[in-house]
Amino acid sequence: xxxxxxxxxxxxxxxxxxxxxxxxxxxxxxxxxxxxxxxxxxxxxxxxxxxxxxxxxxxxxxxxxxxxxxxxxxxxxxxxxxxxxxxxxxxxxxxxxxxxxxxxxxxxxxxxxxxxxxxxxxxxxxxxxxxxxxxxxxxxxxxxxxxxxxxxxxxxxxxxxxxxxxxxxxxxxxxxxxxxxxxxxxxxxxxxxxxxxxxxxxxxxxxxxxxxxxxxxxxxxxxxxxxxxxxxxxxxxxxxxxxxxxxxxxxxxxxxxxxxxxxxxxxxxxxxxxxxxxxxxxxxxxxxxxxxxxxxxxxxxxxxxxxxxxxxxxxxxxxxxxxxxxxxxxxxxxxxxxxxxxxxxxxxxxxxxxxxxxxxxxxxxxxxxxxxxxxxxxxxxxxxxxxxxxxxxxxxxxxxxxxxxxxxxxxxxxxxxxxxxxxxxxxxxxxxxxxxxxxxxx
Length: 442
What we know:
Blueprint: E1 7-14, H1 20-31, H2 35-43, E2 48-53, H3 55-67, E3 70-76, E4 124-131, H4 135-151, H5 157-170, E5 172-174, E6 177-181, H6 185-208, H7 210-237, E7 239-241, E8 244-248, H8 252-268, H9 274-287, E9 289-291, E10 294-295, E11 297-298, H10 302-322, H11 329-353, E12 356-358, E13 361-365, H12 369-385, H13 391-404, E14 406-411, H14 414-427
Antiparallel strand pairs: 1-2, 1-3, 4-5, 4-14, 5-6, 6-7, 7-8, 8-9, 9-10, 11-12, 12-13, 13-14
Helix pairs in contact: 1-2, 4-5, 4-13, 5-6, 6-7, 7-8, 8-9, 9-10, 10-11, 11-12, 12-13
């Protein structure tokens, strides 16, 4: 009997209308591969993913990859070609809604195509954050928010804040699920009214009496830790992932130390203690956040902050030295100053995010200073040239950058943690709200 023809699957790249990072994220999720491995696979061009498939199996393979934004084609093989390539894909793509590969007569390569439920705690996979927003789409939201805020004398700004956050949260995906922001704009408006009343009183008191103005200024400084804690608690409470809310449990006394005392000591010591002050602030913020009932752990060390500060200082010293170079000195100094800013921003981001863990899960960041410098330079130039109209595109481009260079390292089955937290939160009767459940801020 004549042998049935077999087919091989050729990777073409991202599907039409799908950005590369989104297609690669879908591919990584589908086959539980690391981000680095997927990037190498896509960089090889028309890579053979699988051979020896029937027409029906090949079509299922193509259809499933198309669902995650990856374009492939099947090519008929010669009769003797039935072997599979070593990597990256399993014998057949997973059926929709499942992580287990469809049987195709051979086993998948070791470590590829596992069911999510089969992961042990020491099996780790890197899952990239993916941002799917685009500039023009956000521009329409942004311009309407501005116009309505002007027309309503600022009242609509509370609704504008919610719409902005909902857009960026909803377009930020991790492991095929997006984040949510569910705050009530009315509560934000109440907080802003309180802040506005205090601001008016502070302004008037300064004109009435220097003593009263000074007292009001001191009161504002004393209230600052409470204001910041309240804002972080509010935003965490109404931020969620897979229907599990985040939380912030920072205490007022600790907030006063890290927000007032340590920065003051940093200033008194002419900046010597400032890296320590920043370290204490970041530790306070990240370690007091939680996902459901589980608290994040922050493991950065103060020495990492001192290294980042010293290297940034060295860059700025070099920039100052460049000013003495004839002709091109000022330009080199400007570039050095901007690079110092980019390096400091990305270095702190990498230190902070790489130190955050949640049980056996963790974040991983590899922000690149050069790419960040280019991003900021282009954004700033286009914002100036367009008289501010490029701001929505700048925000979207920045969100794409952050997602591109940030991943989650998931160990074991993250779905199990999600379900456990749903049960734990429900058991604590989370519906009992805070007495001051409003967002206070200037």
